[in-house]
Design a protein that fits this description.
single chain, FAD/NAD(P)-binding domain, 3 domains, binds flavin-adenine dinucleotide
Amino acid sequence: MKPWGGGTTDQVKKAVIIGAGPAGLTAAYELLTRSSDIEVIVLEESDVFGGISKTVNYKGNRMDMGGHRFFSKIDEVNEWWDRMLPGRDPDKEDDVMLSRHRVSRILFDSKFYDYPISLKPETFINMGLRQSILVAFSYLKALLFKLPEDNLENFYINRFGRKLYSMFFEYYTENLWGRHPREIDASWGAQRVKGLSVMAVIKDVFGRIFAKKDRVVETSLIEEFKYPKYGPGQLWEITAKKIKESGGTIIMNARAVGFDVADGNIKSVTYRHDGGEVTVDADYVISSMPIKDLVAGMNDVPADIADIAAGLPYRDYMTLGVLVSKLELKNRTKIKTVGNIVPDCWVYVQDRKVRMGRFQIYNNWSPYMVKDLENTVWIGLEYFVNEGDEYWNMTEEEFSKLGISEILKLGIIGSGSVVLDTHMEKVKKAYPAYFDTYKDIDRLTSYLKSIRNLFCVGRNGQHRYNNIDHSMVTSFETVKCILTGSDDRDAIWNVNTEKEYHEEKN
Ligand SMILES: Cc1cc2nc3c(=O)[nH]c(=O)nc-3n(C[C@H](O)[C@H](O)[C@H](O)COP(=O)(O)OP(=O)(O)OC[C@H]3O[C@@H](n4cnc5c(N)ncnc54)[C@H](O)[C@@H]3O)c2cc1C
């Protein structure tokens, strides 16, 4: 199957792929299955497949870093997922993509609110009369007096009004990014909640009432998603296995550190492995590693370009898996769950009393994520941090104490709950951020595009807020370029820049 055309030459060429996350593994698999003329070597610095989309298996209880909804409007991606996980019966088969119903709410002031904010009577009952009136007036004001959209604060106020913004966006955003929304570029909001506003919510409510068939639903409001039986990493473990079966090489614990650039091409890649350094020649380099690290490892980079790359900011992420006997939070919804726990897959925490930004309830992502589903609840407390800060440097014991004290404060667990176990995980550069030198990213990408055999794919590989599907599509486009011998990198860099599509959660 080579619908994109044949290989470029009659001799075997070598593709060095950096990263065994979704983008790197997709590129490897596509190259191997569409061309027999290309040798594939994947270098992965960690010892697991899936990158940020991995599944951690801790004593039979599985964790998903951030909770990964599989949702895509791109047919090619959906077909790919179906091919990798074709099973149908989760009780009998492992390779099953479950179909899940999204429930995720905001915990604010000890009450649950819909995410995104909805106009249900409960919302106003929760807020109380005084708050509701303030919200309505501030929204009307925002409709009448638009602020210049030169920062994220104004972006939100224009869409939700100042009151809702201060309740539901200000603290959460600052907690997530470590910067006040005033200091963040509005383009981040445009990327994240494209088209989502009080108006979009009203339209959605009316859309449901009148059930117009071809109604365009904002991605942020989409409620169904797919999920691999054993979490997102399962898909990437299967992909890695198929890559090896197809003759690809994957080297784990191999960190790419050096790129020898000469005459507008990367001639070789150097990686650290087993305490030494190895250099491998490359005809093509497909990089899903952070641009910042890629450029730092290249020779002869113009100083201004090196500065832009070095100044790109990121936000790092920590999560504490907590195994408890039961939750104190009561399920007051009509949704049935095993053990009648609250039905949310994840909950946004917007309470200024705590540092936690969100928590996951893995039981609700997939029942197969939890070893003893009937008698335990396996939750993941999420913290947005900076590598090297006071949280990042905490010992597992300190972090565990912090997490447990916060879930007690929030009433997530109570005196009747027993904490059975905890487990800490850290993810570097989970979020590429859109501030500081990001404003000059176009100059940096032009430079990267000028290196003829370099293809930048994925999320940190493009420093863009790409989800799994978009990360995969950057690799589909890369493979098309390589197999057709095209020099045009625009199709790769233009993924996820189109107007009406966006997947939000993080
Ligand atoms: C909290 C959170 C929630 C998310 N939720 C969703 C969701 O619901 N749905 C969704 O579709 N997406 C979601 N995403 C996005 C998703 O995780 C990413 O789109 C996806 O993992 C990106 O794939 P990637 O291959 O580009 O990068 P990564 O997953 O980051 O993989 C890159 C790989 O490269 C390796 N690497 C890095 N540097 C080097 C080096 N120098 N040498 C060798 N290897 C290296 C890393 O170890 C890693 O394995 C979420 C992300 C976060 C942070």
